Each structure stands twice: as structure tokens, then as C-alpha cells.
Amino acid sequence: MNVIAMDVGALEKFNPWWVGEGVPPGLLGTHRRPYFEEAAKYIDKRFIVLLYGLRRVGKSTILYQLADMLLKKGINPLRVLYFSFDEQPAQIEQILSAYEEKVIKGRIGGQKTYLFLDEVQKVGDWQSKLKVLYDLNPDLKIFVSGSASISLQKKAAESLAGRVVDVHVKPLSFREFLQWKGAKMDESRPELYQKEASLHLADYMRKGGFPEITDHAEDGMVRKYVKSAVLDRILYRDIPQEFGVRDLELLRALHELFAREPGMIANVEGIAKDLGRNRITVANYIEYLKHALLICDVKNLRGSALATSRKNKKIYPTSPAFTFAMREDFFSGAVLSKVAETLVAAHLEAEYYYRNSFEVDFVKKKGKVAVPVEVKFGKVAQGQALRFMEIYKSPRGGVVSKDEFSPRGKVKVVPLWLFLMKSSEAAE
After folding, report:
1. Is pTM, for the whole model, over 0.70?
2. Which CATH superfamily is domain 8-168 in?
């Protein structure tokens, strides 16, 4: 294959440490997230490290932080190579050819070299190209990031089996958000922090954990950022490029529908009829939104064996900020209750809810044990959780409330802010 030559200036633009004092501070962010440590532990391992997740959650910053760590350890700056396919189209072969010919003036082999490829999903057949690189260059350590998230992970798993570890970079957790804001909460005495925690929680809900807007105050600015920097790029660039989507209006309409109505039942036939589109097309587009991590679905558990129903899935946006961007009445009672469900679904990584003769918002399964979790932002009621526990012999249950706290008994009642402070396992 002929490789079109790349100007070395394009590489120098992305690698200022070749001629300067290291990674510019403006590229390093203000905090190190837990995902940095998770990726860094593989720095001396052969594995390719794949960072995947939504746009604007800090994947590029983590790559820069890893490069900075290497430089501070004394690694030759010329042996640390970064390139962003989001900013400049190119082929991996072009980059490495120019790098070997014009930067290190030799082959990569023989000396440890670190390669950082940002938004790699924009390169056709990237996974096969990385497989060849990995197999032929034992001295090459590869880090990649991407935003077409689930399909990116699947392609890596299929083509790079045994060669790759993936790190799912998520928006800031509520705990991280508080740390970034400099707020300290004593979880052992929640009654003392309820008022302050509620204010921070409301702020977190509208910003959705996107790091760059942690300190933004104006609603209009937050909405503009979420729409332009996150949603528009995914809906109008990433998904069309990845899946060849042509009906952008349908894609936008579906996402807006799910963002405006968190937890709605995905009746594909009904949605297709309302939007005047083909049912199969609508079903495919919903899958594309899932692959891009803009929505998640929660399946219905039903029957004595708690079998999974393929129908009647609930759809939630993956960030409450998507709902905030679409609704001026975000903080009204009815909407806020659904936003609370969105946060609980994300925190639990919920797969199931229950609806038969009664409904439970979420069911967390571990083996044969099923734990009901209800979200009650109005009057707290434990009836459905207790009923589920009695029928399915559940050892415990939970209710996530707006501000009530009752940690004793078979059904624990915990305010949403405190629930979000705990790990997903401890929160069950």
C-alpha cells in the first residue's frame, strides 16, 4: 500500500515536548481522575490500553497525563508520540512513516516507544492495523482512545483479543464532583450535610459530570456546552461516520425523545408510527444511540423465574445533563423524579426493572439473588420493594429518597446524594 507522506510539522504540532519543557500545563487538566491510575498500571505491560467513553469526559486529558508521567520519569521526549485523529485526518501508517523518517531517523524497534492515538475510531480498520503494530513491535507501547464507544470496544475485543485492556472513562461521579468543588461531606453524619449536599446535587444534575463545566454557573452556558460540545458532535459526526446514518433528523428526534422523557418504555412500533418512520429503521437508530453511550436500556424481569423480557425496555439518557439541555422545567417535581431515576440507573449500572402486577424501578441481580431498588422523590413508600422481597425471597431492598434517611430494617431508605457517594456495590 502506498503511504502518502506526512509533513513533520503536523506531528510537531501534537508533540510540543519534542522541543519544549514537557506537556503544556493547559493540556493536563486540573485533576487526575481514577481512570488515570487504572490506565497507568499497565504502563509497563505489553497490552494495548483502550480508553473509551462519551465525548468530553477527559479521555484526551488522561492520555496527556500519561505522556507527562513518562516524560517526568526521564523517557526520551522523542520516544513519546501523540496524534489526534479528531483534529487531523490521517492514516496510522502515515504517522509512523513520518515519525521514523523525520523524527527518530530510524526504526521504532530497539528502544521503548510510547504511542498515543486519540479518537482512533476515525481510522478505517484501526483494530487490524493496531494488531499488526502490536505483533511486529514488542518495544512499542500503545494507548488509544475513542468515542464511538461500544462498537469501539467490540472491535477491540474481536480483533485484539488477548492484546488489549479497556478502560471505560465515565463522567464525573458525584463524589468526584464534590472533590472538584472542594466540598467535604461526612457520610457517617448525613443529617448535618443534607442542605449543602442537596445544593451540590442540583448542580451536579444539570451539569451531568462533564469536567469542563464543573464551575460554570449559567444555565444557558451549560445547555449550550452540552448541546454543541457533546450532543451535536456525537449525533451529527460520530454516529453518521461510524454507522453510515443518513436520517439525521430521526436520530436527533429519538435522542431528544429519550432525553426529555427519562425512563419511558421503548415501544418501537408506537415510536415509529408517531415519527412516520420504518420500525426497523427506528430500532436500528436506537441501537446506534446505545452504541454511542447516549442512552441505556433497562430490561423487564418478570415471571416466577425472573426471566428477561425483550419487550418493554425502559430507556434512560446516560447523563442527566442531556435532560437539562432539553427541558426548561428540569427542576419541576415530575421531571426531577425521573432525573433521579436516571442517576440511580447509571450508578447501579442497572440492567433490570420489574413490572408484572406491580412495578419496582430497578432490580439488581447477583446470581439467584434479586435486590429491589425504588426511587421515591415524593412520599417515601416501601410497599413495592417489600412485596417484591416477599415473592422472590430477597434478603434486602432499598429506597432512594429526596431527603429521608432510615438505614435500619430490611428496606433501607437513603437520600439520593448519599446513595451516589457509595460504590455501586455498596449502594445496592
Report:
1. yes
2. P-loop containing nucleotide triphosphate hydrolases (3.40.50.300)
